[in-house]
Amino acid sequence: MRDSTSQTSPSQSAIEALVQNFPNGVLVLFDDDLRYRAVGPDVLPFSNANATELIGHSIHELFPEQTARRLEPELRATLQGNARSFDIEYDDRIHHIETKPAKVDDEAYGVLATQDVTQERETADSLQEQNERLDQFASMVSHDLQNPLSIATGHLQLYQETGDPDHLTKVEETLTRLDELTQDLLTLVQSNEMTDTIENVSLHAVAHDAWEMIETRSATLTVSDHSIKADHGQLQALFENLFRNAIGHGGNEVTVRVGPLEDGFYIEDTGTGIPEEKRETVFEHGFSTGYGGNGVGLTIVSRIANHHSWSVELTEEESGGARFEFTGVDLAD
Fold first, then answer.
1. pTM value?
2. CB of 101 closer than 8 Å to CB of 81
3. Contact status, residue 283 vs residue 232, Cβ threshold 8 Å
4. pLDDT for the residue numbered 144
5. Helix, strand, coil share (%) of the chain residues, nearest 5
């Protein structure tokens, strides 16, 4: 181990001059014992510590052991001639570290430069989250609005053929639902907090409203009445997506059941279900097996559940179909 009080060479003096005048962040010269040989500037910008007090100390003396263990292999690799670039969390801040090998008087050292990049990383994470939301929103719009549009178009064509005004009533109802869906989807992608739209909602009423918004073919719906606190429009969107998936995957004769749980409700079907090894990934955006269709429907279900602070679990209906259980649900007053 080198003596930190040894005479300073011209090369070391140049290094010390460099670290003392480092413009943005902290610059360190460290030796093969992982001890700081020079540190600058004099007052460290992140901690306001006195740089001279760090000289001669190893990283194991300067940092918590977990941080030191993260640093050590990177610094060892630097001393062996390999530059490094990485982030490290310390004292609730994110620091970006660049290391390069150096020779001082024919001895191997490492030079470490570190900058506090907490704000930059948080901004980047926020932008990434916004981009992901925009991507999901585009998929949700094309997915959830497509079926009501098809229904409205179909009833308009029937009115033109028959003149029956009942078809215009259906068109009006469907267009109203389209407007509700648009507002619900905007709420989902713009906020993680619930608004004041929570109310007592009958699962029986919402389930039947949702059933009318999809092409049900010869499928059967059975609902045990149960009332909870929820956003009516978003809950209907959740039902529509699960009903559409059940019919699309289970066939024309599938039976869909909705019933109460002690702290929530379930939706299950008599289709072929989802393999157990895939149940952890079905809610991911873009999941694209036959059940999830284009990989959007179950993402919407998950987001609506999260928006209500509910937990959702995919299990198996007793005959092998899919069963979605929603828990942590507030019951109606």
1. 0.50
2. yes
3. no
4. 66
5. 45, 25, 30
